[in-house]
UniProtKB/TrEMBL annotation, chains A, B:
Top-level taxon of origin: Bacteria
UniProt cross-references to InterPro entries, sorted A to Z: DhaK_L_YcgS, DhaL_dom, DhaL_dom_sf, Dihydroxyacetone_Kinase
A GO MF label: phosphoenolpyruvate-glycerone phosphotransferase activity
Keywords attached to this entry: Kinase, Pyruvate, Transferase
Protein name in UniProt: Phosphoenolpyruvate-dihydroxyacetone phosphotransferase, ADP-binding subunit DhaL
Presence of the UniProt keyword Kinase in the record: yes
Species this chain originates from: Brachybacterium nesterenkovii
Assigned EC number: 2.7.1.121
Gene Ontology BP, a term: glycerol catabolic process
Amino acid sequence: MTERKTTVTVPDLIAWLRRTGELMAEHAAELSDLDSAIGDGDHGTNMKRGFAAVAGVLDEDFETVDALLKRVGSTLVSSVGGASGPLYGTFYLRMGTSQKGATELDAASLLGAMSTGVEGIEARGKAGIGEKTMLDAWMPALEAFGRAGGSLADALRAGAEAAAAGRDATEPMVATKGRASYLGERSAGHIDPGAASTALIWQAAVETLAGGSDTGSDDGAAS
Amino acid sequence: MTERKTTVTVPDLIAWLRRTGELMAEHAAELSDLDSAIGDGDHGTNMKRGFAAVAGVLDEDFETVDALLKRVGSTLVSSVGGASGPLYGTFYLRMGTSQKGATELDAASLLGAMSTGVEGIEARGKAGIGEKTMLDAWMPALEAFGRAGGSLADALRAGAEAAAAGRDATEPMVATKGRASYLGERSAGHIDPGAASTALIWQAAVETLAGGSDTGSDDGAAS
Amino acid sequence: MTPVTKPCSVVPMKKLINSPDTVVADFLEGMALAHPTSLRIDHENRVVLRGTPKDEGKVAIVSGGGSGHEPLHGGYVGRGMLDAACAGEVFTSPVPDQMQAATKAVDRGAGVLYIVKNYTGDVMNFDMAAELADAEDDIAVRQVITNDDVAVEDSTFTAGRRGVGGTVLVEKIAGAAAEEGRSLEEVAEVAERVNACARSMGMALTPVTVPANGKPSFELGDDEIEIGIGIHGEPGRRREPVASAREIAEKLLDPILAELPGEGPVLLMVNGMGATPLIELYIMAKEASQVLAERGVEVSRHMVGELITSLDMAGCSITLLRLDDELTALWDAPVHSPALHWSADDIQE
Amino acid sequence: MTPVTKPCSVVPMKKLINSPDTVVADFLEGMALAHPTSLRIDHENRVVLRGTPKDEGKVAIVSGGGSGHEPLHGGYVGRGMLDAACAGEVFTSPVPDQMQAATKAVDRGAGVLYIVKNYTGDVMNFDMAAELADAEDDIAVRQVITNDDVAVEDSTFTAGRRGVGGTVLVEKIAGAAAEEGRSLEEVAEVAERVNACARSMGMALTPVTVPANGKPSFELGDDEIEIGIGIHGEPGRRREPVASAREIAEKLLDPILAELPGEGPVLLMVNGMGATPLIELYIMAKEASQVLAERGVEVSRHMVGELITSLDMAGCSITLLRLDDELTALWDAPVHSPALHWSADDIQE
Ligand SMILES: Nc1ncnc2c1ncn2[C@@H]1O[C@H](COP(=O)(O)OP(=O)(O)O)[C@@H](O)[C@H]1O
Ligand SMILES: Nc1ncnc2c1ncn2[C@@H]1O[C@H](COP(=O)(O)OP(=O)(O)O)[C@@H](O)[C@H]1O
Ligand SMILES: [Mg+2]
Ligand SMILES: [Mg+2]
Ligand SMILES: [Mg+2]
Ligand SMILES: [Mg+2]
């Protein structure tokens, strides 16, 4: 067993973001297919394009967590468009600003940062739980992460599992926000693409922030 | 055996034209299919529309052959359009004017009238034999009719058979006139739609002008 | 030697494109080349601008949205209509940087009106741009969100009605109001009023194929049409058997009339979805005019064409705008854009 | 009871029409309703006329042809372009009666120019009309036959090159010349010159479905395109695998350039075949412009849009017209038709 990680450094966060981009690229077709069923079929290309732009800035010098995350957030805002651009962009922007000057995060401050980020998503999108959006993956994930106790790795794994479960739980939901809401009852029976991309973000977190080679969670995107 | 006919009266010609219209309507899809292969796919609807318009004027009073045929020709010119409208229209117009004042036609004058009509087609369309047009049915038909000797019925049957053979002989030809000419070599291997409609005119002639119930020729359009 | 096995054959897309990745960039280059003097294009920011900016002191109008709806919005940039249009990726809202660049380029000191179609992404991206304009550039910005699509029935349980055909009318009339020299407040007010008086509904004969996906957005049988579609390949309200132009006109107009406010004459817009021949649109215009005549609605202005499209979707939408004297006069005012064009000496109708 | 057996199922057509038989009549009614003052339509003769006839003493211009090519020809009736357009059945030349009615309606004492696309049917029907105008109505008629399609290679073994995209340019420029008050001889001369200086070539991504037939005019595989098509669903010169916009631009431009006479700048027209999204046409405009730049050809005027179509065919055509100062000035002159519209105060480009 490798050394047990208790904090997340700037390089760790960079690894997380890089891995997120890889997963988005791998699952782009899947995400777009989910979006075709209840939206406009671009979520995969949006995420792939956004995180490719993010990968392009990760080589810059970042001293602090907030410098990195603000850069990531504004890169997403500037490159994604659509609904997911401002939402994910706001997530990283707020996550960053909540940690002014920090150079590493322990489990508690990581939770705090992500919670602030998710509040940003709520503020920007004016959605709540159960509306069949990415929030239905984010919220249970943060709750599970906070409740987990134990090591950072365990908490991340609990979060990722809850994100994946939250993603799957969007399937029967009737959307009341975003493009899928236009379908009314016909939106039920499909997984929300934004919830699926959120689960990928959590999968990447487990793979890069939990330490060791444990990749714990399932494959992240719905099959 | 029914009475042997030696002349064609105005009512006979009306029956011929009516029957022609029925055959055009029955074979419209076939004619358009032939035209789709090497043209623009409207020959069947053109012929059907034109002879339906002709049927609409056949109840008027016609004292003479030329009054009837000129009315038919101008009706076709005014209702068909395309290449076949002026060509068939000119055929009946000239056929009529060649028989000023006649009230019936014997075999010789019928041949003369049709020959004048076909010269009109040649003059209007500036085509000759072997260019994969309706002339490739008209010309052998007239020749066979003229050569036949014997009864009017026999002559008509000979003409109809030659028209059908002429129609079939257009299949290997490369078109050098009309829309099919744009295809160059690719026009070979398809029967010319105008030759097929000419064969129908001859089939109708046999059925209505030859006397008796003999319908001699084959079904007139290519299968 | 092992035989070379063909890879799982991907049928190339039947589109006049070079690659799905370059669609928007190539399109904007084409626009720039085709309109070298009447338009100016900021390729870096993907903003279509007028060749000659409007006079100092007049309100500027910026719109934009995902690409794939051409001529909307870039084709409406010109005297009497838009000052700038921001082109997003296909069916994806543009990003705030684009709106910010456009805003800075077109502001003539009287403020900028954003015309935004009501989609979550568009609304959020324009919102962020408005915040930036206010905070960083000190330019007064007002936004009008268009939401005229009656196919979205229950707006409390949805993101609200979508902005569709009515957007073209808002852009035209707000453009005319701005050209008159009205204030930002006044231009925004008339734009709001057009939006409030416009209702639309669309239908599809075929789905749409987004270049990046390479496959149709939904399956539609050879004998089926989709009623109540949006402009992004979203499935519609319901699927039905193929119907006549007359029946389709009724299916679109009845829900529009049920929600159209006010009284009096209307503007009738018959719009093609991108792959609809003009001959069919005029047939729809005839049927729509006749249905309206039977319902006792007077049509005093008409517009027929492909005006707000959905890539290669075949189908149409109908928009009605309830007119009054002011809106009619603003509608009739000259417009000089690539896609909409009439001059002072044309008799309007 | 015997069960009701479904008849051999005919899939209804995916078109916005009422019935194949009423397509042209319905279309003309739609045009009349949509343009109540700028156009006047003689429904009996299927002739589209200007709402306000041109001044006495000016040459009038009549065109026409089969329907299915909208906006050609009816959409080009208006000040600065056509005086009348005769609408035939779909893909079928109009009949002489129509041209005769149009000729009588538009002659202002200076004679009438017929602009006729080179198809056997069109040529013969217009010929008969010209004979009638001369014999019965004593109106001076001149004819110009357009034949700009380089896809027809060997014009001695064919009915000659077809009239396609160049027809739009002939109609615009002859219209401007007539508006200037030139004589019939002079207007015919300039029309001939435009035709002689124009060359076109088209391609199809899909075949066309004529309403009366209800099935595609030819079969085209999912990965095939047809190069050198006409505008009536005729198959083309050859079939090829799907290619990029850039490659298609070369395939169309190289044969055009090989036959384009003269030297100097050109007008580039990129035309959609009826079901081609505008975004793709602008992409083609970009590629065509770039190919021409590489070949050393200067493009001084552009026109992009669906201008001469083939019902629901997807694909495009390119037309080049070699310009000189006179043709350029006539091109830039104002035009006020439903489909082509610019005014004196527009900067042409
Ligand atoms: N108001 C909202 N709040 C939170 N998430 C939202 C909201 N609207 C949409 N989303 C998320 O955005 C996803 C769609 O993103 P994307 O397809 O990239 O954008 P668009 O819908 O503009 O095409 C949805 O699956 C959903 O998870
Ligand atoms: N120059 C010509 N001379 C004689 N017949 C011709 C000529 N051009 C065409 N045709 C005949 O016309 C037929 C096509 O008629 P039709 O399809 O009705 O007209 P269009 O070609 O205008 O669509 C051809 O099959 C051919 O037989
Ligand atoms: Mg989407
Ligand atoms: Mg034909
Ligand atoms: Mg989108
Ligand atoms: Mg024809």
